[in-house]
Amino acid sequence: MKSEASHQLRKLRKRTEIPSKDSMGSLPEELIATILVRVPVKYLLQFKCVSTKWFDLISSPEFVKTHLSFSAKDYTRHISLLQLDTLDTNIKSCSVSSLFHDSITEALDLDCPMKYPHQRVYISGSVNGLVCLTDRFDGLVLWNPSIRKFKKVLDFVPTQMCRCWSMCGFGYDEVHDDYKVVGIFSSMIKAFFEAAIYSLKSDSWRTLEDFKPGVSYCGEAKFVNHKLHWITFRRRRMCITSIDLVDEKWGKLELPNYNKGRDLKLGVLGSDLSVLCNNDERTHSDVWVMKEYRVKASWTKLYTIRYPENYELSPPLFTYNKGEILLAFKSTLAIYDPKNDSLTYPEVPNVKVTGFYNRIEAELCIESLVCPDLPNED
User: Fold this and answer.
1) For residue 67, what are the domain limits?
2) Is residue 11 part of a domain?
């Protein structure tokens, strides 16, 4: 990642030609590019108005990629998207660094591009600052909340049904520089299943021919190592099913040797695939991490997180550089410190969850300039 960022910086320096009459024209051109790639998104959007040269620089693919590489390594550029499990489209955001460092964290309301009265909108993944939103029927939007741009994805209607239920996964094909959505569709009436993949670069859907029906897909897809992963059931046997977004081939991974009968949820801890195993009594959860991808023996139980109430724990969201882990319980956020096996609860005053069935859904997102390549704006 470091060598790639250096390469992109060299390219940026060659194309950064700021005339002396500009407000920063007295600075060396290479220094201007080096500074700007480290600036937060909200200021870069303002800096686009400095001049045509600055607009072209900040909008260039090289700059966007280099800025993203810096943001990915800077946890102050990470935000947590929060959503309450209610029939509305309200999505809030709060700073991850604020959750770890501040006594009180403010959650900001975002203008969600999917607005349906009395219909749930789901966050189906976030990659490089782009967020995939779906209503799990025919509505699908790719959205960058940092730059307030979105793209409504073309509807995909499977050939043998007019109304379907879908489960989506969202990821990035680094080889082809393409963002892709995998949809698994099932008929509400007939026992028919179909899988399709959407390419942002071509703005089109294609049916995945080698998809095998008869498998139950559980939970949200997790993107690791160029692949999307689901926990799946087939004939009472559980495993992890994956699809490679580069060659679009399906595969399987073995689960860790957890205590059977527990509720399992996939997650991502750092850059590794993780599994959260909730015990039946909901008193604690084991966190397993696959240290070496595709090697079953590398599954390692890192933590056993115990909690005082009958909570439903979601997979870990983020690991701070000191080892603390950001978690989402049923109705609150928490920070787990493995050094002393303790939990603390950040105060987010304007995020309130009430009712037995309501819970916080959280997704990690990186601030970025990546655009879903569309003319739609707020």
Assistant:
1) 2-72
2) yes
- How far apart are alpha carbons 308 and 291 in whole angstroms? 29
Of residues 268, 278, 365, the one with CA closest to residue 316? 268
Q: Based on the domain organization, do 98 and 59 belong to the same domain?
A: no
The answer to whether residues 194 and 317 belong to one domain is yes
Instruction: Name the percent of the chain lying above pLDDT 90.
Output: 37
> Of 216, 212, 213, 217, which Cα lies nearest the Cα of 228?
217
Q: Using the predicted structure, report yes or no on whether residue 23 has a pLDDT greater than 50.
A: no
CB-CB contact of 42 with 67 (8 Å): no
Amino acid sitting at position 98: S
d(CA 372, CA 132): 10
Which residues have a Cβ under 8 Å from the Cβ of 203 and sit 6 or more positions away?
154
Q: Do 156 and 304 fall into the same domain?
A: yes
Choose between 306 and 289: higher pLDDT. 289
Question: Do 16 and 148 belong to one domain?
Answer: no
Q: Which two tokens stand for residue 39?
A: 């600036």
**Could you tell me if residue 377 is inside a domain?**
no
Closest of 72, 81, 170 to residue 366, by C-alpha: 72
